[in-house]
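retry 2 of 3: previous attempt timed out while embedding 2-acetamido-2-deoxy-beta-D-glucopyranose. Reduced batch size to 1 and resubmitted. Inputs unchanged:
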Amino acid sequence: MRRTFVFTSILILCLSTITISVQSHYHSQHDPGEPKSTDLHFFLHEAPSGNNATVAMIARSNITVDVNNSSMPFGTVYAIDDQLRVGLEPDSELIGNAQGLTVIIAGRNTPPSVLLYFDFGFTTGKFNGSSISVISRNPTTDMDRELSVVGGRGKFRMAKGFAHLKVHSANATAIIAELNVTVIHRYGKHNKCYYNKEKIAFLDFSPKFK
Ligand SMILES: *[C@@H]1O[C@H](CO)[C@@H](O)[C@H](O)[C@H]1NC(C)=O
Ligand SMILES: *[C@@H]1O[C@H](CO)[C@@H](O)[C@H](O)[C@H]1NC(C)=O
Ligand SMILES: *[C@@H]1O[C@H](CO)[C@@H](O)[C@H](O)[C@H]1NC(C)=O
Ligand SMILES: *[C@@H]1O[C@H](CO)[C@@H](O)[C@H](O)[C@H]1NC(C)=O
Ligand SMILES: *[C@@H]1O[C@H](CO)[C@@H](O)[C@H](O)[C@H]1NC(C)=O
Ligand SMILES: *[C@@H]1O[C@H](CO)[C@@H](O)[C@H](O)[C@H]1NC(C)=O
Ligand SMILES: *[C@@H]1O[C@H](CO)[C@@H](O)[C@H](O)[C@H]1NC(C)=O
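retry 2 succeeded.
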């Protein structure tokens, strides 16, 4: 009971400090630290159809012509929840997922192309809980493609970079692609609110990195 009261008081103190601070200073500066570079190598496993499909059509245009009965006419939007694995094998270690949207952006007179809005999230190891954001054109007729990395979360905060994607195999039930991602990012401690007798410090953007 007493501990709960103390803890609650600290929380209230921290919150009120933040409120006061917001009123008096609406900005602060901090050193984001030295940039880091990380290379990632993994495989994306997609199931376009079947009971466990990782692709679901959300909407499609009713005015685009379905040339050759393509399953992906211009103006179609899909939700994606693909698996990220360490290898080509469907039973290799699962390390995360690629979740997001794809939009078919090529019309009849342009080469097939898709716009990806993906969050590559990792669920194991050093980058568990961190993710990188990809917003990029994905020219689906090229076997080797480059995607742009525009941001990230967790250990990939402020990420910028690129990914090389190569399709290894594709059929109606399985698409397997290899990715090499290079990102420059900065990460530090999480923002903290802590109490000591002298002062209440908050928003600790420590420039020290692990
Ligand atoms: C779908 O996933 C479930 C659970 O992982 C599995 O038992 C089932 O065999 C899978 N079905 C297909 C068609 O792959
Ligand atoms: C497409 O959908 C809109 C809205 O329902 C409708 O007004 C229009 O007639 C449809 N066009 C065609 C070609 O079916
Ligand atoms: C439709 O199929 C024909 C024959 O396979 C091919 O020549 C043509 O390029 C296809 N059109 C589109 C838009 O994919
Ligand atoms: C598209 O599919 C419809 C119905 O399945 C079929 O009648 C038509 O011939 C197909 N068109 C082409 C170009 O394959
Ligand atoms: C990843 O992080 C989540 C949330 O913190 C945790 O529940 C899970 O056990 C972690 N997984 C691994 C493999 O470390
Ligand atoms: C990824 O990097 C490895 C090692 O350099 C290379 O063998 C592989 O071809 C690359 N794959 C892609 C898709 O860039
Ligand atoms: C599709 O490709 C996967 C991976 O290469 C393979 O395991 C599967 O047998 C293929 N399915 C068909 C119907 O060819």
